[in-house]
Amino acid sequence: MNANDIQAWAAPIQAFAAVVTLLLTVFLIWFTSRTARSAERQAEAASKQVAAAQQQIDTAQQQLGLAQRQLAESIRAREAAVQPYIHVLGVGFQRGQDRPDLVTLAPDVNVLNVGPGPALSVMLAFRHDHLVVPPMPGPRVLPSGAERPPLPAGAVTEARSDRIAPEAELWIEYRDMLGHWWATEMPLRLDLDVDTEGPRPWRHSLRQILCLDHGERVYRIDKPRIREDFSGVDV
pTM higher than 0.70, yes or no? Predict the structure, then answer.
C-alpha cells in the first residue's frame, strides 16, 4: 500500500473514529444520567425508610411513656390502697401521786388510723429539749378506723433544765403492708405552771398538753428513725 492509498483511507478512518467517539460520549452521558437517577431514587427510598423508622421509634417511645405512666399510676393506686395515716386526736398524761411535777410525767396519746391500710410496727417518741423521754413501742398492728385506748408514749426520766420550755413534739413512725415507712409529726405545747418562789430546781406542774393541729404532718420516710431496741418487749 503506497502513500496515496493511505491518504485515501485516512479520511474515512478519521470520520469513523469521530462517530465512535461521539457514540461513546453519548453512551457515557446516558449511563451517567441513568446512574445518577438510580442513586437519587435509592437515596429517596433510604430517606423514606429512615423517616419511617424514626416514626416507629417515636411511636414506640410514646407507647413506652404511656406504659410507664400507667405503671406509675397503678403503683400509686396500689400504695394508696394500703397506706396508713395515723392522726393524733389528743395527748394526755399520767403522773405520780406523790410528785405532781414533770419528773413523773408519762404522756399518753389518742390516735386514729384514718388511712385505708393498717399501720404496722408502730413506735412513739415524745421529744423535748429539756426532758428525757425514752421512746415506746406501740401496737404491732393498728387497723384502719379502729378505736383503741390511749397509747403510752414513754415517761420522763430526767429534766435537764430548771426552766422547761413549753414546746414539744410527738413523733410516731410505722410501716405499711408494702414495707414503706411513714411518720406522723405533731407539734405540742405544754401548759405549765412554774413555781418560781421555791428553791431551785423550780417545780413545774403540767395543766394540759395541747396539740397544735395545724402543724401535723404525715409523710413517707426512707427508714425508721427511732433507734431504741425494744426486742423482747410485749406490745
Answer: no
Q: Which residues pair with 19 in a beta bridge?
A: none
Dihedral of alpha carbons 199, 201, 202, 205, sign: negative
Q: Are 206 and 93 in contact (CB under 8 A)?
A: yes
Q: Are 192 and 170 in contact (CB under 8 A)?
A: no
Q: Read out DSSP for 13-53?
A: HHHHHHHHHHHHHHHHHHHHHHHHHHHHHHHHHHHHHHHHH
Q: What is the DSSP letter of 202?
A: P
**DSSP assignment of 138-178:** --SEE-TT---PPEE-----EE--SS--SEEEEEEEEE-TT
pLDDT of res. 202: 57
Place of cell 396500689: 78
Q: Hey, what's the cell of 71?
A: 405503671
Of residues 184 and 74, more confidence is placed in 184
Domain-by-domain residue ranges, the chain?
1-82, 83-221
Contact 109/151 with Cβ under 8 angstroms? yes
More confident: 99 or 88 = 88
